[in-house]
Every structure is written in structure tokens, then in C-alpha cells.
Automatic annotation (TrEMBL):
The lineage of its organism: Eukaryota, Viridiplantae, Streptophyta, Embryophyta, Tracheophyta. Residues 14-73 form the Terpene synthase metal-binding domain. It comes from Solanum lycopersicum. One of its GO terms (molecular function) is terpene synthase activity. This is Terpene synthase metal-binding domain-containing protein. It comes from the Eukaryota. InterPro entries: Isoprenoid_synthase_dom_sf, Terpene_synthase_metal-bd.
Length: 96
């Protein structure tokens, strides 16, 4: 029954995109040092360091700014939802 209710909620454009960005980039921030030491996948922080030729702390600040910007967009869209939509969408947002 819940699946049908969730399917009827129309999320604002790019809402899930911004939730995904937050989850991905927060994961990169927390795990970047350990993953680089193990030689694992390229992370957003390391990619930005190499692409822009900046220090890691500058890259971390940039990634943090993207996370904060995504939160602002999520909050803006969330505040424009109806009460019934907010209850359902809140579950998605809490994942971030």
C-alpha cells in the first residue's frame, strides 16, 4: 500500500538528484583519506584536486559548498510542498 502512495507523490524537479549529491559527497568527505590509501575508486575530492590543481583542503571546502547548496535547494522545494507530500518526502530527505 505504501508503494502506491509514494508513487503518487510528485517530487520537485531535481529533488532526488540533490539528495543523491549530498549522500555521495558526504560519503566522499568521510572516506576519502582511507580509500585513497587503499588505492580505491576516484573520489570527488581527489578529482577536484587534480582537475583544478588545488590543495586538498580547498577541494574539501568546494565539496562542502556543493553539499550546502544542495541542502538549500532541498529545503526550498520541501517548504513548497503540501503537508501530505512533506510527510512522504521527509522519508527521502532523511536518507541524506
Amino acid at each position: 500500500m505504501k508503494i502506491l502512495i509514494y508513487a503518487k507523490v510528485k517530487l520537485p524537479r531535481n529533488y532526488l538528484y540533490h539528495v543523491s549529491i549530498i549522500i555521495r559527497l558526504c560519503n566522499d568527505k568521510v572516506n576519502s583519506t582511507a580509500e585513497v590509501e587503499r588505492g580505491e575508486v576516484a573520489l570527488s575530492i581527489i578529482c577536484y584536486v587534480q582537475q583544478e590543481n588545488v590543495a586538498e583542503d580547498v577541494a574539501r571546502e568546494y565539496i562542502e559548498s556543493i553539499i550546502l547548496d544542495s541542502w538549500k535547494k532541498i529545503n526550498y522545494h520541501f517548504n513548497n510542498l503540501s503537508t501530505s507530500q512533506k510527510k512522504i518526502v521527509n522519508h527521502v530527505t532523511n536518507g541524506a
